[in-house]
Amino acid sequence: MNQHVPPVAARPKAKFRPPAIQKVRVAGFFGPRIDTIAATTAHTLLDRCIDAGMLDQVDPERPNPGLKIPYQAGNDTVTTQMFWDSDFGKSIETAAYALFRKPDPALEARIDAVIEAYGRLQDADGYLNSWYQRIEPGKRWTNLRDCHELYDAGHLIEGAVAYYQATGKRRFLDILARYADHIAAVFGPKEGQKRGYCGHPEIELALIKLGRATGVQRYLDLARFFVDERGATPHFFDLEAQARGSDPKDYHFGSHEYSQSHETVRRQRQVVGHAVRAAYLYSGMADVSTEFGDDSLRPALEALWAHLTEKNLYVTGGFGPSAHNEGLTFDYDLPNETAYAETCAAVALVFWANRMLGLGPDRRYGDVMERALYNGALVGLSLDGTRFFYDNPLESRGGHHRWTWHRCPCCPPNIARLVASVGTYAYGEAEDEIAVHLYCESVADLDAAGAKIRIRQETRYPFEGRVVLTVEPDREADWTLSLRLPGWSPQVAASVNGEPVDVAAHDRDGYLRLRRRWRAGDRVELDIAMPVERLHAHPRVGANQGRVALQRGPLVYCLEEADNGAFLNAVVLKAGSRFRCEAAEDLGGATVLVADAAREAASDAAPLYAPEAPARRDAPVRAVPYYAWDNRAEGEMLVWVRQEDAR
After folding, report:
1. Terminal Cα distance for the chain, rounded
2. Which residues pair with 443 in a beta bridge?
3. Closest-CA residue to 246 (of 255, 234, 259, 237)
4. CA–CA gap between residue 391 and residue 345 (Å, rounded)
5. Helix axis angle, 105-121 relative to 149-167, nearest 10°?
6. Per-residue pLDDT band at 407 (split at 50, 70, 90)
7. I need a surface site. Which of 9, 59, 94, 508 has the fewest CB within 10 A?
8. Parallel, antiparallel or unpaired: strands 477-484 and 433-436
9. pLDDT given at position 450
10. pLDDT digits (tens, 9 = 90+) for 6-15
């Protein structure tokens, strides 16, 4: 054992917080993607928001556009036009990260113009919602269940925090802080305040970010109130419906499970309802648990995590199989061709996993964050940064393609803001510990043990498993560097300054915990084995019996018609065939997998049913990363591939 790196003794859990955007510079795999977002996607989002009429609704100096998107059939209280502030908020957040990446005076001027429109719109008491101020005045705070009022506020707040951190400009932050103060006056446990919360959780996350950025405790307290109040009796949404003159039973989705308000959060043990709302809520719960040291939320969070990841998570990190409720149905219901698996749900799972890591490094959360990021979320953005997936099946017969926009454009800015800020998810900072959750070429300027610490990552991850980290503190100090040991890797070798480290002796909760006196120039090297794995689904997932999914490193792979021809279900992997890795220049240099396989064939004249099995012929198979599919010629796609039975 390396005597310079003694095993870490157990000690009280620390609070781990993500670094702000300006503290991490990303290159490598994500660098070109962030560059594309900065050069193209950020402008594209603004263009399409404005083309849809969003700025007309926000700016009181423009003619009132009125209702432009009809109310939803069967749910006449909701139109997606109500959510336009959230789309602007996420688009501004994306632009903020783009501006941090690369100065763009034209983009900055466009954002400043939108911010000034919001400044003109804001009421004297701080209230700010373009739908209720210009389209349905007089109805504010009357339908929190359906109309996303606080959700809109949350995304505007997150955009304001990001824009301040990226540019140093306080204008939008001050506008949204005034709105947050107004919300804090309206909602709370005191007499005369509303004991309500949003039907679509999100403001909880935003208030935590605002509290951390400003140091104002009441924002953190308000986030805690919204978490604690959810699902309390008498049920706020029922009282609210009665006050509107509506029957609480006359609810489009039938049950408060849809919004995870069917019971108080500490009693919840199963993930139910709308997938995005669920993961946003659990993210807020984890944030509150971290900020307040509230262990009473842990049993619910642990049970919810287990229920999702053990019985309801797609191999891509997506979840929510049903288009009807954009969410959960029943355990092991994981169909492939009809999978909804909304991009926003995978993005929200990254948020939740990252916030669970606020409670301390734990591979369970880091691995799922990585799976959802590289697969279920990243697939939502095309390689050229202009087209988007909303739902993400694991099988397509050739008719599923990216959108240029969507009637409910929540996903485009959501995946864009996640990718553009991915550096903040790679690290966690605590009082005397730094955790590395994601491996990506980057330079991070972090703080621990009273020292300013620069960490440089050099790696070709996720295509290669070698990672070199150079530590450059401004002074010598004792602290812990924790490095995730991916659960998909059968072996990780590590060294510090060339001396091997006994990984097993320093493994705690799936992280390599290295505590020592760190000096400038200390070098940690990891060699993470990346074999191609054939993953088998639980037998209760009927659609995947006799099939395997291919994974190498954090990447899940799929077959495309562009490489393998049509009728992908006729492809059969040979049990003993080996895969080789090749670089695909037509997919940005991504590593693809090639192996020998077989293909079943029959002529059109063959009977529909026959006693003989179809003939097979040898045929190579080429698999590409799931995130990269539908970037070339149109055609079929398949994740779960048939395999010969080797038993």
Report:
1. 41
2. 25, 456
3. 237
4. 9
5. 140
6. confident
7. 9
8. parallel
9. 95
10. 443 443 456 9
Q: Are 611 and 360 in contact (CB under 8 A)?
A: no
pLDDT digits 0-9 by tens, 213-251: 999 999 999 999 999 999 999 999 999 999 999 998 888
Q: How far apart are CA 283 and CA 355, in angstroms?
A: 6
With 0-12 CB in 10 A as exposed, 13-18 as middle and 19+ as buried, what is 25? Answer: middle
pLDDT at 197: 98
Distance of CA 384 to the CA centre of its chain: 20
Helix 411-420 × helix 343-356 angle, to 10°? 40
Residue 376 burial (C-beta neighbours within 10 Å; 0-12, 13-18, 19+):
buried
Cβ neighbors of 103 (< 8 A, separation 6 or more) are: none
Strand partners, 296: none
- Give yes or no for residue 634 having a pLDDT over 80: yes
Burial class (CB in 10 A: 0-12, 13-18, 19+), 615: exposed
DSSP H helical segments within 197-296, as ranges?
Answer: 203-214, 217-229, 236-243, 275-292
**pTM of the full predicted structure?**
0.96
| 522-536 core/surface letters (b: 16 or more CB in 10 A; e: else) | bebbbbbebebbeee
- CA 327/CA 373 separation, integer angstroms: 19
* C-alpha dist (Å) from residue 462 to 118, 424, 550: 41, 18, 15
Q: Which of 535, 518, 505 is nearest to 639 (CA)?
A: 535
Q: What is the mean pLDDT of the chain?
A: 95
How many angstroms separate the CA atoms of 201 and 210, rounded? 16
d(CA 365, CA 428): 13
Q: 3-state SS string over 13-64?
A: CCCCECCCHHHEEECCCHHHHHHHHHHHHHHHHHHHHHHHCHHHHHCCCCCC
Statement: residue 603 has pLDDT above 50? yes
Domain spans, the chain: 30-197, 426-528, 532-643
- Determine what percent of the chain falls in helix, strand and coil, rounding each to the nearest 5: 40, 20, 40
Write out the two tokens for 109.
């001027």
User: Can you point out the beta strands (E) in 386-441?
Assistant: 395-396, 427-430, 433-436
β-strand pairing of 641-643 with 571-573: parallel
For 162, the token pair is: 């990001």
pLDDT at 162: 98
In CATH terms, the fold of domain 426-528 is: Immunoglobulin-like (2.60.40)
How many CA atoms lie less than 13 Å away from 217 in the CB half-sphere? 1
The mean pLDDT of 496-512, rounded to a whole number, is 98
Residues with Cβ within 8 Å of residue 90, at least 6 apart in sequence: 45, 155, 158, 159, 410, 413, 414, 416, 417
